[in-house]
Design goal:
Blueprint (H helix, E strand, L loop, with lengths): L8 E7 L12 H12 L9 H11 L1 E6 L4 H4 L6 H9 L5 E3 L9 H14 L3 E4 L1 H4 L9 H10 L2 E5 L24 H8 L4 E5 L34 H10 L7 H13 L3
Helix pairs in contact: 5-7
Pfam families: Amidohydro_2
GO molecular function: carboxy-lyase activity; hydrolase activity
InterPro entries: ACMSD, Amidohydro-rel, Metal_Hydrolase
């Protein structure tokens, strides 16, 4: 189990890009290569969950980790939530499992979400509207959200631009419009008991999203640390954070305390 008193931060946003045993030659390697070039990632092949755990252990940072279920829209094989959970259990001194289910799966998504929460203690789910091809306020996803709201689970939504498909013909079919953060407004109104994370600064809709400029005041208990590993390393993010103009009393909130409260481990 994670000793939250000892870790220096909680990274709320890391990807399980290459769980052991899941690799298949379906074109995903090409996507990863272009993404790595876009972000300047320092690896030739995505790290496994074991490698991710080792890196975060060395950095003394806890990490929320998840796959992205987007096989319907992208054609890339889904990484199994159960496989990710098993590997996370082997590294539960540093990793916290979230899951991902394509909301287009309807009743199957609802059943799987309920099972993962009730039987495995999953605390949240990753949604990538651009990769999964849906508007967050599409009513087809509402039964899924109801399960999250019922159990106090987190919905972590990608917002804004994405490096996914960068440099590929037609952006590899990725449509930016789905990730406008304004579509989360309906979700927040209709599911007031659902914990929602809007990942990233939401460019080019940062004006519609909550402004980072208020992190020292009204948002100081809402901001979270999320690196988007493995495309961006936590140490690169923390180096930039150290140079940013945040008050001393706000820094521990963003780095760890807000996430602890959200995850129910405070």
């Amino acid at each position: 189990m994670i000793d939250f008193a000892k870790v220096r931060a909680i990274d709320i946003h890391t990807h399980a890009e290459e769980p052991c045993g899941c690799h298949s030659d379906d074109g995903y390697d090409d996507l990863q290569t272009t993404m790595a070039k876009y972000f300047g990632a320092p690896w030739s092949h995505p790290p496994t969950i074991e490698q991710t755990a080792a890196h975060y252990r060395q950095q003394n940072i806890a990490a929320v980790i998840f796959p992205v279920d987007a096989e319907r829209e992208t054609g890339y094989r889904r990484y199994s939530n159960d496989e990710v959970l098993e590997l996370v259990k082997q590294n539960d001194d540093v990793l916290i499992p979230f899951a991902s289910i394509d909301p287009w799966k309807g009743k199957m998504a609802v059943r799987e979400a309920r099972r993962l929460i009730e039987e495995h203690g999953v605390k949240g789910f990753k949604f990538h509207p651009t990769m999964q091809g849906f508007y967050p306020n599409d009513r087809m996803a509402y039964p899924f959200y109801e399960v999250l709201a019922e159990h106090g689970a987190v919905g972590l939504f990608h917002t804004g631009q994405t490096g996914v498909g960068s440099g590929m013909r037609g952006g590899n079919g990725m449509r930016l419009k789905f990730s406008n953060p304004m579509y989360l407004d309906d979700v927040a109104v209709d599911f007031p008991d659902m914990n929602i994370i809007a990942a990233h600064p939401s460019f080019p809709w940062q004006e519609e999203a909550l402004a980072v400029a208020h992190a020292n005041t009204i948002l100081k208990k809402k901001m979270l640390f999320g690196s988007d590993w493995p495309m961006i390393s936590p140490e690169k993010w923390l180096d930039a954070f150290d140079k940013a103009d945040f008050r001393d009393e706000v820094r521990p909130l963003i780095l760890k305390e807000n996430a602890m409260r959200l995850l129910g481990v405070a």
